[in-house]
Batch of 2 targets.
Target 1
Amino acid sequence: MTLIPFNKPYLTGKETQYIADAVALGKISGDGSFTKKCHAFFEEKYGFKKALLTTSCTDALEMAAILAVIEPGDEVIMPSYTFVSSSNAFVLRGAVIRFVDSMPNHPNMDVTKIEALINNKTKAILPVHYAGHACDMDIIMALANKYNLIVIEDAAQAIDSYYKGKPLGSIGHMAAFSFHETKNIISGEGGMLTINDAKFIDRAEIIREKGTNRSQFFRGEVDKYSWVDIGSSFLPSEIIAAFLYAQIENLQDIQEKRLTLWNAYYNGLKEWADTNGYILPNTFEYATNNAHMFYIDCGSLEKRMQLIEHLKAKNILAVFHYLSLHSSPFYAAKHDGRELINADNYTNNLVRLPLYYELGLNEIDYIVNQITSINHTLSSH
Ligand SMILES: *Cc1c(COP(=O)(O)O)cnc(C)c1O
């Protein structure tokens, strides 16, 4: 078997044609026709009050932190088991991060542990929908209402996924999505901020345009544009938006294919996992599965290393991720010292299997066969 990579960016076919179209239109900076088409698609399909493309999910999170008026010493509550940008965006504004443990049976944050961390410095809660599986948003929104907090969904992995029928990214006050090449739909690097509380919309447009009211100027709402607030250059060029639009047009097909592959892994591995102490992804009734990721909880660091090595020897690249942020070199000394046992367990035990559009069911069969033969192989050493 030739090498099976962990990820392979999928081109649906029209990406380069749309980029050529954008070039031919003579406007390749931001907020041209392809950006508008992307915004309209997301707003109509998912009911976001406002969608704004950004150059990354990281940038969308940084915008959200500015919009939430995070000031030095303010506290933000989020899971420890997540990507660094979730917290870095807020630390850039001087925030103190209060990390929440994962659930014992899912990497998502344990919502029952949030309320004890809320105090008069708490400004925001950042639920991360791990693997595109929704956090229990009713509980989070109820806490936000009770204590007057802002909820920013890290929906980087959560495109086209739902919580009790509501699209993820449409529930919190704001949400951040990623179109990095490892996500379901991609633009190389790319992201989106969505806004569901209308009071943030005007300022979001200003922050995204270097602190100017240029968006209002182009709509003819003001007769000149000027520097009115802090901001940065958060908007992507039309070349990025053109690429993304080709992906959007194939969203349904991409999701169906990924789900087929995900189910093939699940069905192929279930019995082996149950009999050998490995745990497959747990799904909740309130959450849909957008097949962003297929992972296995190996139960121990040793078993995970064995599995990764075993697959590598068979030319299959499986990877682990997220060194829990509360014990990272940058944050360990700033963390409040609480033990986060489940986050540490996922840090040590979780492995992600290859999952991308062009992966064949025959390749999944091959991978499943290699995995289910691991115990036999190890014992024969
Ligand atoms: C991918 C990812 C990000 C960052 O996305 P970029 O577009 O690369 O900035 C943030 N949070 C989570 C949970 C992610 O998976």
Target 2
Amino acid sequence: MVPQLLKHVLLALAVSRAYADLTTGVPDSAPAGYEEWTSPIVVPAPDVKGSADWAPFVARARKFTAQLTIEEKVNVTTGVDVNGRCVGNTGTLPRFKWAGLCLEDSPLGVRFADFASAFPASINAAATWDVDLIKARGVAMAQEHRGKGVNVALGPMTNLGRQAAAGRQWEGFGSDPFLAGVATAVTIEGMQSVGVIATVKHFIANEQEHFRGGSESFPIASSNLDDKTMHEVYLWPFAEAVKVGVGSVMCSYNLVNQTQACQNSKLINGILKEELGFQGFIMSDWAAMINGVQPALAGLDMNMPGFVGYGIGDQNQPDPSKATNSWWGVELINMIRNGSVPESRIDDMVTRIFATWYKLGQDRGYPEVSFSQLTQDTYLNGELVNKHINVQADHYKLIRQIGAASTVLLKNTKNALPLSVRKLKRVGIFGSDAAPHPAGPNACSDGQNDKGCNEGTLAMGWGSGTANFPYLVDPFAAISAHIRSINPTVVVEGVLSDYAYNAMAPVARNSDACLVFVNADSGEGYINVGGNQGDRNNITLWHGGEALIANVAGQCANTIVVQHAVGAVTVEDWIDHPNVTAVLQAGLPGQESGNAIVDVLFSDSPQATNPSAKLVYTIAKKREDYAAEVLYTNNVPNNGNPQLTYDEGVNIDYRWFDVKGIKPRFEFGFGLSYTTFGYSGLRVSGHKRRAEAVSRPSSSSAPVISSKPSASPVSSAPAVSSRPANASSIAVSVSASASASSSVRPSSTASAPSAGSSPVGDIGGPAALYAPFGSVSFTLKNTGRVAGAEVAQLYLTFPAAYNEPPRLLRGFSRVFLGAGQSKGVSIPLRVKDLSVWDVVAQKWVLVKGEVGVAVGASSRDIRLTGKMQL
Ligand SMILES: *[C@@H]1O[C@H](CO)[C@@H](O)[C@H](O)[C@H]1NC(C)=O
Ligand SMILES: *[C@@H]1O[C@H](CO)[C@@H](O)[C@H](O)[C@H]1NC(C)=O
Ligand SMILES: *[C@@H]1O[C@H](CO)[C@@H](O)[C@H](O)[C@H]1NC(C)=O
Ligand SMILES: *[C@@H]1O[C@H](CO)[C@@H](O)[C@H](O)[C@H]1NC(C)=O
Ligand SMILES: *[C@@H]1O[C@H](CO)[C@@H](O)[C@H](O)[C@H]1NC(C)=O
Ligand SMILES: *[C@@H]1O[C@H](CO)[C@@H](O)[C@H](O)[C@H]1NC(C)=O
């Protein structure tokens, strides 16, 4: 008995020593001038609670985990190698015939797979503002992942594009947290509805590629952001993801407040697991770990892909429980044996992973992995690795539809668009962006992989957020085919070299319509394309795009510009040119790119689409107008960790332009249509506190109160919900049940903190936050001559005392209307949408006072205003 007790006490001492290590100077102290930017320590890691609908699955997972040996537990938490079938592979449990988990990129398709689709990028999905289309994309992508045997799909990505030039901005849903939150949530709902575990990433403040970090790249930049900005901006979409039950989260490469995100206990234990009550598991970004003990204590649950770092040591260790070139693997066993990490921690890691696996139904006949990230060939080293299963179904239809629905019409004068073949004799098409890729859609002329080049038409950016194109319909081919299908005698001439000015001249001078294709690319920081290390060096066009436009417009009175750009591009050089009659931002439309642009350009396309997309970021007149800039050179002496201080706080993108009174060229939410819309009859319901709010008689046009995220759940009709307002369900006193402690909680023993002792909150934050609060309704009318959809946007203005920007997006609805038709639209609001994060109280509080209500066609084109008294 005595030795046992002694062992227990020694272990307890060791564990508290480890927590003390976590408290002191891990991994770096702040450089001079940045002392306030450090993270508090929040330990111990809370055990999964089994909240709400997770309960039975957590219970099953606990039971299962209890049967495992320590080696088996390690197998579940640590990746195998980079030479596995998927980009991430856990070990297996032969004793239970458990084949391990396949984790695979990307947020726009099944990376490296054949017979799979290349979907429009997330930045395009968001630009549709159509929750049905965004969700359908999630479903379709996940069907493909599932069909290939992927257990965990590594998306959606929901970083916010703090800087216009940020390399991976196109992998996310734009620069507004509310819109990104809705898009993230419905994408996850779609993906998980087919049983694939979605991974929301990158947690968190992973907003640039320079100094992005990872174990092979030092120094690593520290994102320094205050608590209000964290909650109201960067955390918002993650909270919405947790609320809808996302299975996994990926922590990012960067430091936050000097501590690497994957070992930042305030972020993982404090914010993710306690405050947001996250029940799934959190994995590292690939080789993001820079340490073993700290991430375990800080709440990390899975080490991906397993090895210490790219190019460091043995990259291929088939058995995680024996892997020595890993921060975990055998080391995790050592940590537990020497008391650095309590065994309860690894039990919780495994429980969380299996609870998610059970919850998504993957224990019931889930398809086996049938492809290899390493080859498109059938066999690799004599082993059959690729069954070439065709998972594309009819997803090309959805891809084409989203491509057209995400194309933003920025300018349209002299009725330039839409075109009609009947009225054309001769068409000129200019620029390499209209053309096929010289080395094929999946390769680069210089041999670079992962789309690390910008050749031919641009339909996705570069890096791990890509997928193979099964084919790529280029604009020249699609436009020519469409025109020929109606009138083969129309002359369609393509000058597809960007600098062939002599060849362009006669074509430009003699065409009725000159279509100029230009682009701008960016991607992930491990690839440098033409001097761009992931982040763009500039926010202008590539391949001499401005000169190309000037050249054509100088000779052609009907010059129509189509941009395939990853994000904002400044257009001041040419936007007001009288011969530039129309401009479209088509973004990154995926494999059906050419067909999608035909649908927008031509009214006689069988799938002609009246543009309705709206910008999900601001296009400034000049780069300096934006709130924040990429840090390209280290701002800390002696190669210290660069410091990215988010001085603009909550005022990113349009909020900054509004605060500073800067006129952008095209504001957030802007986008034209071939028709026009009228707004009338604003009514604000539920605008009094609690009882008053719900005791108001509801009018004949029944205001809608829905518990869904505040985007209207349907695109073709206004939101309708039969859920009656329930006075007692509308909580006004919104108190966070889980405020993260900012100090080490006393941990008297080394045993697992019981679920009850951890301040684990409701899933996604206090349930009361998500309660319906009221709604804003109005009438929308199509006042033009063609059918089309309008994305009506709801912005709120909080009382000045809260120090918020003039307008915050808090709802939207995409409504399709025939010519002359009108419809009542109602946009629901939740308590959260009217709340701010109180940094002192460490909770969300409903604002008090007069809240301005603005409804319009963009963040600056406000058509109706009203107020609520709270
Ligand atoms: C980062 O530091 C700021 C300033 O002290 C603080 O407000 C914020 O809560 C910290 N965030 C994290 C995640 O540590
Ligand atoms: C761990 O996983 C590896 C790789 O799949 C497997 O070979 C090994 O048998 C597993 N170890 C245990 C203890 O199950
Ligand atoms: C315990 O083991 C881990 C993993 O090998 C090691 O990093 C750590 O330094 C050890 N701690 C002690 C106190 O021995
Ligand atoms: C902007 O960057 C692109 C891509 O590197 C380059 O082609 C272009 O020349 C740059 N523009 C300017 C004005 O430097
Ligand atoms: C517009 O195009 C016409 C040719 O149709 C050309 O004569 C004119 O100079 C162009 N305008 C400008 C401002 O370049
Ligand atoms: C109203 O809310 C209370 C408390 O949450 C609940 O018991 C009741 O069933 C709800 N009624 C309706 C009609 O939703």
